[in-house]
Amino acid sequence: MTLTVTLNTPITGDYQQPIGLFINNEWVEGVDKKKFEVLNPSTEQPIVSVHEATEKDVDLAVAAARKAFNTTWRQTSTNERSKLMLKLADIAEKNIDLLAAVESLDNGKSITMARGDVGAVVSCIRYYGGWADKIHGKTIDIAPDMFHYTRPEPIGVCGQIIPWNFPFSCWHGRLAPLWPLVTPSS
């Protein structure tokens, strides 16, 4: 089964829209194969049907995220993490018209507002990407013969539930600050 459909926006023309769930670095069907319709808020007509995540799908996503965290991301250097975040910002900026058009189509906001949102996402990812290699622990002298130290350490997987009307901006505003804070284990 194909997990993309061709959609059209007035600004960018045809593009391939994923309709699956992004789990373990790939687009997949929902476990229960249930779908729901995404409606155009201006016309209330269906735009596309996408796979619906159930509790089972969330469990699979959390397990995949934990595995990635424990085997890959936790070991990723802060320099590499910074490069990845800045690359993501570059990709989003390169595709600003498409991302804004999809955001506008999905929630009915003006294309001008959607472009502003995507621009804010790019700026936010760049800002936190710049911090990724600058977060370090501290040594604190508390007495002449004693000191304490702090060391940022990764704690694990987190999840978020975001509103339907501001998904792209809500995603970046909660996720981007976390990426640089997860430091590689020493």
Task: Describe the protein.
This protein has 186 residues and is an alpha+beta fold. The chain is built from six helices and eight strands, in the order E-E-E-E-E-E-H-H-H-H-E-E-H-H. It has a two-stranded antiparallel sheet. A hairpin with a 3-residue loop joins strand 1 (4-9) and strand 2 (13-18). Helix 2 runs antiparallel to helix 4 (111-131) and helix 3 (96-107) crosses helix 4 (111-131). The radius of gyration is 20 Å and the shape is globular.
Task: Report the sheet with the most strands, covering strand number, pairing sense and barrel closure.
Answer: 2 strands, antiparallel
Content of β-strand: 15-25%
Record field, number of beta strands: 8
What is the count of distinct domains?
2
Please report the number of helical segments: 6
> What would CATH call the class of the largest domain?
Alpha Beta
What is the H/E string?
EEEEEEHHHHEEHH
Q: What is the first-to-last residue Cα distance? A: 43 Å
pLDDT averaged over residues: 86
Give the radius of gyration.
20 Å
Sheet/helix structural class? alpha+beta
Shape, per Cα inertia axes: globular
Keywords: NAD, Oxidoreductase
Protein name: aldehyde dehydrogenase (NAD(+))
Domain Aldehyde dehydrogenase: 27-177
EC number: 1.2.1.3
Strand-helix topology:
Layout: E1 4-9, E2 13-18, E3 21-23, E4 26-28, E5 35-39, E6 46-51, H1 55-71, H2 78-94, H3 96-107, H4 111-131, E7 139-143, E8 146-149, H5 167-175, H6 178-181
Antiparallel strand pairs: 1-2, 3-4, 5-6, 7-8
Helix pairs in contact: 2-4, 3-4, 4-5
Domain Aldehyde dehydrogenase: 27-177
Organism: Bionectria ochroleuca (Gliocladium roseum)
EC number: 1.2.1.3
